Description:
Elements: E1 12-19, E2 25-35, E3 42-52, E4 63-68, E5 78-85
Amino acid sequence: MSEGTVRSRRKVRTGRVVSDxxxxxxxxxxxxxxxxxxxxxRIRKTTRFKAHDETNQAKVGDLVEIVEVRPxxxxxxxxxxQIVAANKG
Length: 89
């Protein structure tokens, strides 16, 4: 590998904040579409991630981008990179 090449890209996901009750932590629900193995129909599946939010800026309903980082606690392996769209309500 040369000097300027990137070794690894961090995983990035976009999802909606469903809980902000913890200090410096938000729960982000990421939705994805998969195909049913037998019937072939598209299924909506959701995964919940705990993400570190240093400034406590993300609120419930906000659309956020999270990035994979080293383990910060037993459950937290993600960090809020940016708030894509704030909830207007």
